[in-house]
Design goal:
- Helix content is 48%, strand content 7%.
- It contains 14 helices and six strands.
- The radius of gyration is 31 Å and the shape is extended.
C-alpha cells in the first residue's frame, strides 16, 4: 500500500499491484470496512452470480446462421450500401420469428405465408420474397442448399402504377410557382431533362459536363453492374443552369452549401411540390414523365434505354407501348365517328 497527502492535508491510501493502476481505499484503516475494501481491491470483486452471456450467433443450420453467412459474403458486400441496409432489415425481421428454425425446412408455402401476411403493403410483401430469393440464390451457389424455396413464389401485383407521372400541365404549374433562377426550378429541370433518378441528380455538377455532353455513372447498382451514360445537354436545361446559382461540385446544394443526400433531396423537393399545389407529384414522377414524353415524341425502346440507363427492354417497352396506343388511337378514332 502507498499513502499520499492532498493539498488540504488529508492522507489518502492506495493499493498498488504491479503492472496495474493503483486503487484508492476510502474506509478508515483498522475497520472491517477497510479490510473488505482491501480484499476486493486485491482479489477483484466478490463472487456474485453472473448474467449469462448471450450468444447472438445462430446455430449452424438455422436460418439466422444462413443470414450471417450471407452478410459476410462477397455477394452481399458488393451490394450498394442502401440495398445492404434494406436487405439486412428485411432478413433480420424474418429472423425475429424464424431465426432458430432450420433453413432446410423452409418451403414455398412458408414464403407465400410471409408474403401474404403483408399483402396490404405490396412493396413490403414483395421485398420479403426478393430478399429470400437472393439469400437462397447465395445458399445454392455456395452449396449450403440444393434448392431455392422462394424462386417460384410470385410477387404481388400492385393495383397502383407507383409514383404519379407528371403531366406537362403540372410541369407548367410548378414552373409558374418557382421562378427561373430558383433552386426548385433547377431541380425540376435536372430531373426532367436528364431523366435520371434523384440519387444521381444530387451528384450532378459542372464536372459532369464537357463539350455539351453530360456523363455520369448511375448510383443504382454501382457496386455490381455500373451503368455509365453520356447524354447531350438540352438547351432547356442549359438555360436553367446558366440562370441559377449553383454549388461548385454539385448543382444542387442545401442552405449550408453542402450537396443533398438522396433522401434529403426527396423530402425537400416534396415541399417544393406542395408549395406549388402539386401534393401528388414527386421527384421520381418526373423521370416517368420524361420517359413518356420521349416515347410520345417517337423515341424507340433502344433510345429510351440509352437515356434512362435501363439494361433490358422491359421498362422501355411500357412507355413505347403506351405511346403507340395513343398515336394509333388518334389516327383510328375517325373510323369510330358517324361522319355527321
Amino acid at each position: 500500500m502507498v499513502e499520499d497527502t492532498d493539498r488540504h492535508g488529508n492522507v489518502r491510501i492506495y493499493l498498488r499491484k504491479p503492472g496495474q493502476p493503483k486503487v484508492r481505499l476510502k474506509s478508515q484503516p483498522g475497520t472491517q470496512e477497510f479490510l473488505d475494501e482491501y480484499r476486493v481491491a486485491l482479489h477483484g470483486t466478490p463472487d456474485k452470480p453472473q448474467a449469462p452471456t448471450l450468444d447472438r450467433r445462430g446455430n449452424k443450420g438455422t436460418f439466422k446462421w444462413l443470414c450471417e453467412q450471407y452478410f459476410a459474403s462477397a455477394e452481399f458486400k458488393r451490394l450498394a450500401p442502401r440495398t445492404q441496409y434494406v436487405r439486412r432489415r428485411i432478413l433480420d425481421g424474418v429472423c425475429e420469428k424464424n431465426g432458430k428454425n432450420p433453413y432446410a425446412l423452409l418451403e414455398a408455402r412458408h414464403v407465400r405465408k410471409m408474403r401474404d401476411d403483408r399483402a396490404d403493403t405490396p412493396e413490403a410483401a414483395n421485398g420479403i420474397v426478393k430478399a429470400l430469393r437472393q439469400i437462397f440464390n447465395f445458399a445454392v451457389e455456395y452449396e449450403f442448399s440444393d434448392r431455392n424455396p422462394a424462386r417460384d413464389v410470385p410477387y404481388i401485383r400492385s393495383a397502383s402504377d407507383g409514383f404519379h407521372s407528371w403531366t406537362m400541365e403540372e410541369v407548367a404549374q410548378f414552373e409558374q410557382h418557382h421562378a427561373l433562377g430558383s433552386k426548385a426550378r433547377l431541380a425540376l429541370a435536372l430531373l426532367l431533362y436528364t431523366g435520371q433518378r434523384r440519387s444521381d441528380v444530387v451528384r450532378l455538377g459542372p464536372q459532369h459536363i464537357k463539350d455539351g455532353w453530360l456523363t455520369l455513372t448511375q448510383q443504382k447498382n454501382r457496386s455490381r453492374k455500373p451503368v455509365t451514360l453520356s447524354i447531350p445537354v438540352l438547351p432547356e436545361l442549359e438555360a436553367v443552369i446558366d440562370a441559377t446559382p449553383t454549388g461548385n461540385l454539385a448543382f444542387l446544394v442545401t442552405t449550408f452549401g453542402k450537396p443533398f443526400t438522396s433522401n434529403g433531396f426527396g423530402n425537400w423537393f416534396r415541399k417544393q411540390c406542395d408549395a406549388a399545389g402539386l401534393k401528388h407529384c414527386s421527384a421520381h414522377g418526373l423521370r416517368k414523365a420524361g420517359a413518356a414524353l420521349a416515347a410520345e415524341n417517337g423515341a424507340t425502346e433502344r433510345q429510351l434505354m440509352a437515356i434512362f440507363g435501363w439494361s433490358t427492354m422491359k421498362e422501355a417497352s411500357r412507355y413505347t407501348r403506351a405511346a403507340r396506343q395513343k398515336v394509333l388511337a388518334a389516327s383510328g378514332m375517325k373510323h369510330l365517328s358517324r361522319g355527321d
